[in-house]
């Protein structure tokens, strides 16, 4: 039983770290802001979720488990909402995503409804 | 150190605020490394959280870039250098940092650590030192926070005419920020509940009055930012908050006076109950409650006063 | 096992800091700081397990909330300072 828990933990922790690192590298290498938000927030949420689940397998049935679940919930909600707010604020202040090719609409790449 | 130097040299005040937040976060990391979890908790929540928010609120009132001083303050520099050198010279006689032979480590710390279990019986020694052994200092800190709130209230007075008009502030168009508002409404009860948890769990884990007050205020500040000042002030009326600011300090000092009336010294909690250890528990509970109330109320007051200033110009004819 | 994860998170924090210094626009920097904050929470949780002290999880919860509220605060600050606000307060 211990061994299964350890293997599961290893899997989740390593997977989570891998996703976090790819997110970080993406943050540096993507060409412009909106694609960076994509990389950072998607891999961030997945990586954080996997790391926290990996930690949950290591915790006993005590107070630590509900706290980890709470961190996971808050992280998911807060992270996604924060990236939504950032993208919206950037759009409102005039930052346009880079598009390749022509578009008929005059507003560049921003969708017509927010 | 690099962040501190950058804070001094930069002219762009917004970058300064951000760097101050990072500096607080790094200090919190140091405290965690030194195994001081309570201090790290307070530093993270106050320094990286509330300070950044309050400084941003005040930045909206002033210009974003620092003006260049028109004279060279050489005399001030000289005075500061001499005073600093004298202070450093004075500390040369003190024992080294972490020296096991220092009087603080020989007498004071062992007494607290060894006797806290039997005399007070609270598992978190930091709370027992803060609230009981050094309760008078903590009363002073609470009064300092209260005075800061008083200062802000006195400097940014809200006149009665504008108070009437603030009641007419209607909530803004909901469609503008709907996702944020829904999420904030969902998270707010959890944030406030967590603040209460930290307040009363301070005896057993990291926590206590200061951190809890700050977390409570941060939740209300989130609500104010997203829903507007008028809506928030219908629930947290300025008069009520002002009353709460004072009542926190009153609770603290009141407990001290009650101990005197029951026959002990000022803030000697053992007198509060039939059993001294019980009395200590009760005293610490009440005192931390007072601290939490004052801290939360003062932070909310400061943020509301700053925010009111930025929208006031709409109502001054 | 935890050490590997902690190391990976530290690497990501350094990368995020680099983006915070480089990022041409302001919003890049805000994104980098938010990411740094999320990684701090993860690092706190992992270090809590590394050193055997579960108290760190309380600090992690606080920091999730503080990070979120700070980013919202920064964004509102910029929304108000670039143009006249479209809504009350």
Short description:
The complex is a heterotrimer of chains A (114), B (317) and C (89). Chain A is mainly alpha-helical.
Note down, in words, how this protein is organized.
- The complex is a heterotrimer of chains A (114), B (317) and C (89).
- Chain A is an all-alpha fold and 114 residues long.
- Chain A is 73% helix and 0% strand.
- Chain B is mainly alpha-helical and 317 residues long.
- The longest helix of chain B is centred in the last third of the chain and has 37 residues.
- The termini of chain B are far apart.
- About 2% of the residues of chain B have low confidence.
- Chain C is 83% helix and 0% strand.
- Chain C is flat.
- Chain C starts with a helix and ends in a 7-residue tail after the last helix.
- The C terminus of chain C is likely disordered.
- Chains in contact: A-B, A-C, B-C.
Topology at a glance:
The complex is a heterotrimer of chains A (114), B (317) and C (89).
Chain A: H1 2-29, H2 33-58, H3 64-92
Helix pairs in contact in A: 1-2, 2-3
Chain B: H1 2-9, H2 13-33, H3 37-59, H4 74-91, H5 103-119, H6 125-133, H7 135-155, H8 160-166, H9 178-200, H10 209-227, H11 229-235, H12 238-261, H13 276-312
Helix pairs in contact in B: 1-2, 2-3, 3-10, 3-13, 5-6, 6-7, 6-13, 7-12, 7-13, 9-10, 10-11, 10-13, 12-13
Chain C: H1 2-22, H2 26-51, H3 56-82
């Amino acid at each position: 039983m211990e061994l299964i828990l350890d293997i599961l933990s290893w899997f989740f922790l390593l997977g989570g770290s891998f996703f976090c690192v790819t997110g970080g590298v993406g943050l540096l290498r993507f060409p412009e802001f909106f694609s960076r938000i994509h990389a950072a927030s998607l891999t961030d949420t997945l990586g954080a979720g996997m790391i926290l689940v990996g930690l949950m397998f290591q915790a006993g049935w005590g107070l630590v488990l509900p706290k980890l679940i709470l961190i996971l919930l808050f992280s998911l909600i807060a992270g996604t909402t924060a990236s939504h707010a950032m993208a919206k604020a950037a759009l409102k202040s005039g930052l346009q995503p880079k598009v390749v090719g022509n578009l008929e609409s005059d507003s560049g790449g921003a969708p017509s409804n927010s | 150190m690099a962040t501190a130097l950058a804070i001094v040299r930069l002219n762009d005040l917004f970058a300064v605020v951000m760097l101050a937040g990072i500096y607080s976060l790094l200090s919190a990391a140091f405290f965690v490394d030194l195994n001081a979890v309570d201090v790290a908790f307070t530093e993270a929540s106050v320094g990286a959280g509330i300070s950044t928010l309050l400084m941003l609120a005040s930045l909206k009132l002033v210009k974003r870039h620092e003006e260049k001083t028109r004279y060279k303050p050489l005399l001030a520099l000289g005075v500061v250098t001499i005073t600093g050198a004298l202070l450093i010279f004075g500390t040369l006689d003190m024992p080294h940092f972490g020296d096991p032979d220092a009087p603080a480590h020989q007498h004071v710390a062992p007494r607290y650590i060894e006797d806290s279990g039997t005399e007070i019986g609270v598992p978190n020694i930091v709370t027992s030192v803060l609230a009981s052994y050094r309760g008078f200092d903590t009363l002073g800190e609470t009064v300092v926070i209260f005075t800061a709130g008083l200062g802000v209230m006195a400097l940014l007075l809200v006149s009665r005419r504008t108070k009437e008009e603030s009641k007419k502030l209607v909530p803004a168009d909901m469609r503008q920020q709907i996702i944020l508002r829904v999420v904030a409404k969902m998270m707010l009860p959890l944030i406030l509940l967590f603040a209460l948890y930290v307040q009363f769990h301070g005896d057993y884990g990291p926590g206590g009055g200061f951190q809890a007050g700050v977390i409570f205020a941060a939740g209300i500040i989130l609500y104010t930012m997203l829903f507007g000042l008028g809506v928030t002030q219908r629930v947290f009326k300025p008069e009520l908050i002002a009353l709460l600011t004072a009542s926190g300090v009153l609770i603290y000092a009141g407990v001290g006076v009650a101990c005197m009336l029951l026959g002990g010294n000022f803030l000697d909690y053992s007198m509060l109950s039939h059993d001294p250890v019980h009395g200590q528990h009760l005293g610490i509970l009440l005192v931390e409650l007072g601290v939490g109330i004052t801290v939360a109320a003062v932070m909310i007051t400061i943020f509301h006063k700053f925010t009111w200033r930025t929208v006031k110009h709409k109502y001054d004819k | 096992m935890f050490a590997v994860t902690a190391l990976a998170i530290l690497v990501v924090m350094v990368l995020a800091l680099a983006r915070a210094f480089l990022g041409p626009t302001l919003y890049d920097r805000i994104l980098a700081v938010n990411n740094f904050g999320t990684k701090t929470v993860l690092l706190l949780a992992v270090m809590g397990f590394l050193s055997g002290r579960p108290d760190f999880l309380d600090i992690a919860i606080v920091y999730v909330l503080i990070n979120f509220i700070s980013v919202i605060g920064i964004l509102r600050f910029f929304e108000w300072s670039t143009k006249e606000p479209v809504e009350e307060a």
